[in-house]
Amino acid sequence: GAGVSQSPSNKVTEKGKDVELRCDPISGHTALYWYRQRLGQGLEFLIYFQGNSAPDKSGLPSDRFSAERTGESVSTLTIQRTQQEDSAVYLCASSTLAGVATQYFGPGTRLLVL
Amino acid sequence: RKEVEQDPGPFNVPEGATVAFNCTYSNSASQSFFWYRQDCRKEPKLLMSVYSSGNEDGRFTAQLNRASQYISLLIRDSKLSDSATYLCVVNSPNTGNQFYFGTGTSLTVIP
């Protein structure tokens, strides 16, 4: 079956612009996670959604970052007024149940802020 | 203290060698444990879950030691294709349903 997909695969933007990253989870997966991975670093948790519950936003680094999810489908991560330190790979993962079940990752969006 | 800690390596081993990685975790309430593999410029992919009694999948063996709060991964008969970064993943049930990832251990298998 189809895995997690993300778009765009690469994004180059200028400092100060807003960007929107998209994640399509595996069908039927109620949990969806966003992570950030800077070059040569580990995965940094940003936010997760579980069904219709309030999302856990505790990992968002600043109020420039926000994410939405419509039901149990697509999610978008928005970064406003991008900064050079936002340059990273943004990874999305989905699973059948938050905090317990295996996560399956999408290929990521490589963001470069000039 | 970090939630999950791994020796970053790098581990450089010859083909056919046996290599082991450990990962320590800080939350005694953690219940779900995984090893993921991440190739250069790729997303992490599940290698195996780690069960309380330990589990084996071909050349890979995972162990859990709850008393000492660590998990291990043993790779036997290393192949060139095993070269990757191995990520330890632990859940945190009493601080939300997050997963915590280690920073990874780099393995290079040398011909």
Based on helices, strands and strand pairing, what is the structural class of chain A? mainly beta
Largest sheet of chain B: 6 strands, mixed
Q: Roughly how many Å apart are the termini of chain A? A: 37 Å
Q: Indicate the overall shape of chain B.
A: globular
The share of residues in extended strands of chain A comes to over 45%
Query: How much helix, percentage-wise, in residues of chain B?
Result: under 10%
General shape of chain A: globular
- Which residue ranges of chain B are poorly predicted, with pLDDT under 50 across at least 5 consecutive positions? none
Summarize the structure.
The complex is a heterodimer of chains A (114) and B (111). Chain A is mainly beta. Chain A is 0% helix and 46% strand.
Describe this structure in words.
The complex is a heterodimer of chains A (114) and B (111). With 114 residues, chain A is an all-beta fold. Chain A has no helices and 10 strands. Chain B is mainly β. In chain B, the strands form 2 sheets. In chain B, strands 2, 4, 5, 9, 10 and 11 form a 6-stranded mixed sheet that branches. Chain B has a 5-stranded antiparallel sheet with strand order 1-3-8-7-6, with no helix packed on it. In chain B, 36% of the residues are buried. The interface between A and B is medium-sized, with 24 and 23 residues.
